[in-house]
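Morning F.,

Quick status update on the modeling queue. The single chain you submitted on Monday has been processed. Sequence for confirmation:
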Amino acid sequence: MNLQEQIKEIKHGFMAFRNGIVSDTLRKAGMPYKIIFGLQLPQIAEIARNNEKNLELADALWQDSCVRESRLLACYLFPLSEIDENKAYGLASSVQTIEEADILSFRLLRNLSFADVLANRLSSEDSQLISYCGKALRRNLDAMSYNS
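C-alpha cells below.
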C-alpha cells in the first residue's frame, strides 16, 4: 500500500471513531485545527497499533497540521531509531498545542537516548509552547526515573 492509500485508510479510521461532542468541545476551547474528529487517545492508540512505525508516514501525518488526530497519531508512529536530536528538536519546535507537546513528549521524546539534553534545550526556549514541551519532557523523564 502506498503512502497516500495508507493516509486515506487512516482518515477513514478517524471517521469511524468520530465524536461530534468532543470535536465541538475542543473547537469551542480554541483548538487551532481546521479539522477535529474528536477522537480520544485510546482510539488514536488503536489506530496506531494497526500501523507500523514508519518515518515517511509519521512525517506526512505530522505535516498535516490542519487535522488534530493526524498530528497526535504521528507521535505514535515515529520510529525511535530514525529520530536524531535535530529531528526531535524540529518536531518539538513545531508543536501547535499543549496537547501535542504532552503526547509528543510521552509517546516519543522521553524514549530517546538524548532526551535529557533535549529537555534542557527546549525548556530554555523563549517560546512558551516550546518551553512547555521541554518541561513536559522533563516531567516524563522524572516520572520514569522515579518508577525505575
